[in-house]
Amino acid sequence: MRIVFATNNQHKLEEIREILGDSFEVLSLRDIGCHEDIPETGDTLMMNAIQKADYIYQHYHINCFADDTGLEVDALNGEPGVHSARYAEGTDHDSEANMTKLLHKLEGIDERSARFKTVIALVKEEEGIETIRLFEGKVEGNITLQREGSEGFGYDPIFQPTGYDHTFAALGLDIKNHISHRARAVAKLADYLKNK
């Protein structure tokens, strides 16, 4: 089965290909010649994931899945949430600026519980009808007082998953990819696709 993962992130692509195995040919946006800026204007992770997957399905007529991920901090009423990648004003995917802003907002606050959440939207044709299926993965943890570790990306240096003594960035990619929010959502997607 050929399916598009609406990303050009090589790390994410390799992780998904490994999990889904040889039964699936997982294509990137580059593989199908998609160089457009796909809209992400939703108010929730779910809406953004659906928007991206449906855009590819409508424009390229191929089964597709897309993900959106956010960090939710309880003391900040769920911020940064859907705005995680652009949390620091005037930036886009500037991890250092985003972490600096988050740590600044949490100064003096002891309650630092948080979670990473990934939502995957799968848009595919089933018996001639376009269907949308959703898969969610999350991992609970805390925001640390300072950065630790150099692996991973985004907020990994300041997120310590529950049950571990180090941040995602210090645990290493093997452990992170096994226990992460994305890994959990992808496992649900893989189970669904393999059983169809």
List the helices and strands and how they pair.
Layout (H helix, E strand, L loop, with lengths): L1 E4 L4 H11 L4 E3 L17 H16 L3 E10 L6 E2 L13 H11 L7 E14 L2 E15 L15 E3 L6 H4 L1 H7 L1 H15 L1
Parallel strand pairs: 1-2, 1-3
Antiparallel strand pairs: 3-4, 3-5, 5-6, 6-7
In short:
The chain has 6 helices and 7 strands.
**Which H/E pattern describes the elements?**
EHEHEEHEEEHHH
Characterize the biggest β-sheet: 7 strands, mixed
CA-based shape: globular
Low-confidence stretches: none
Structural class: alpha/beta
What are the key terms here?
alpha/beta; about 35% helix; about 200 residues; 6 helices
Note down, in words, how this protein is organized:
This protein is α/β, with parallel strands linked by helices and 196 residues long. It has helices at 10-20, 45-60, 95-105, 168-171, 173-179, 181-195; strands at 2-5, 25-27, 64-73, 80-81, 113-126, 129-143, 159-161. Strands 1, 2, 3, 4, 5, 6 and 7 form a seven-stranded mixed beta sheet that branches. β3 and β4 (80-81) form a beta hairpin. The mean pLDDT is 92.
